[in-house]
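User: Quick sanity check before I run a bigger batch. Here is a single chain. Can you write out its predicted 3D structure?
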Amino acid sequence: MGFLSEKEDISLVLCGEAGQGIQTVEAILAQAIKQSGYHIFSTKEYMSRVRGGQNSTEIRVSSHRVASYVNRIDILLALSSGAIKHLKDRISDDTLIIGDPEHLKTVKEEGLLGKITQNTDNFIEIPLMETAQDIGGLIFTNVIAAGFISRILNIPKEIFDGLISDMFTRKGSQILENDLKAGEAGYRIGHELMESKSELIQISLSGQSKVRDELLINGTDAIGFGCLAGNCKFMSSYPMTPSTPLQRFLAGNAHEFELVYEQAEDEIAAINIALGASYAGARSIVATSGSGFALMEEAVGLAGMIETPLVIYIAQRPGPAVGLPTRTSQEDLNLALYSGPGEFPRIIFAPGKLEDAFILTQKAFNLAEKYQIPVFVLSDQYFVDCYYNLPSLPLEDVKNEDYLVKTTPEYQRYLITHDGITPRGIPGYGDGLVVVDSDEHDEEGHITENLNIRTKMVDKRLKKIKQIKKDAISPELVGPEDYQELVVGWGSTYWPIREALENILESDKEKKISFLHMKQLYPFHKSVVEYLERAEDVIIFENNAQGQLANLIKLETGLEIQEKVLKYNGMPFSVEEVEENLKKFMGLENDDTLSVREVSS
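Assistant: Done. Predicted structure follows.
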């Protein structure tokens, strides 16, 4: 019996240098796995280099739904000589390490093998490079690797060949023929290995036919579909990882959905162009990352002053400045919360699962229009790059409302109302004049230095907050209602915390611990205080160094969360990390240093 045969959830990791085509392998395997009826989760970690360095992709193949990153590696396919060294902290004696003799030679020569794993029986060489050269060159190594893994996972050859044909037909018949040969060679190597190493490789995952028809999308796709569902008509942005994929998504769908995409010369231009489009009546979004958004802050204040709706998408990565361009973090909550001079209302969302990313982004456009304010959607590198299958997106929850009015000759753009919301007109729609100005203004929109009017206008803008709170999205509670201990998280920590909590509750159903996921970070839903006050102890997980949400909770509610698990090395929380820290928090393991724990692994 193989050492993987009893596993219902296998963590497969591919690792190699940038430019070796790991993304191609991931793309092939992701679709092949889903079409074979298996559930899949995939994420990647990569360096900000065109060549060199080590990049890896984790693919979880499971008989049940999976959606979070694990530290465990069951099968490692090393596509470079530095792969094993790069992942040495995640390799255990139970890891099956597979690679070309040339790639594994360095590990042996440097004497690292015994230090990394004591189980040398799980160290297997396969002729990837030699086989690729025989077919036509090293460029085919990635397809051979994809075929090899597909055979190990018992993926039908016809499914694999169909995907290869779909992917490479446009490159010409000769290239397609060679890629099909490469895939076949990979299957042959996999079959021979399974025959000779049957005591090691024997996988018996169970697939489900309904999975084949499910969606397989990532965080960027979910947010992009949310933009389209929210009737977004304009995007202007300047490329910046990890927000660029959303820009590509909307640009690629612009024609079909009558959307205009403009790549601006810089971030300052991007947000001001988007505000101009919004002033003209188009639902607009701008996408960026932290240091790019820093350039946009003045225009956030402009949006607040001229009460013009705008959705601002920030895909977070570690800072300050350029930081770690291709890694993940939750460091920009404060940046979004306090951006722009002066005082004016805003809304901040942070989805944690794909369904939330879709519906919260769609709602962001509605709420920006309704309250004539900037609405932020915070994501991060980990979230946007995560793929997993799900039955569908919540299309039934999509409802768009039109808040534009046809103006009359006496129209006043900033008419003071009981709730601070002035009916919004746009130029050319009606007979009224629509005046906006970045200075303080009167009800018609003309510049004023009348201090009484100034006070009334500030009050007018801030009055909206009371109404905005009524539309706040409630947090999601996972676990028993009668909890004693409460775990708090936001954004992309959702699935690692949830899976870790479910593992704990599965082993001890009597435990009174639940998870509160905050999907709206400002302003809070009224239930947040009640949830926190009901708990005897609270712990929070954040991918930043200062506990930005914990600090905001204290500021807004007066409740201080003492136990913080903070990770800020550029990597997401793994399920194992969360589970270990929760056990210590619950007293299941001894630990004297739980408070403000820094997770550096």
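The mean pLDDT is 93.

User: Great, the batch can go ahead then.
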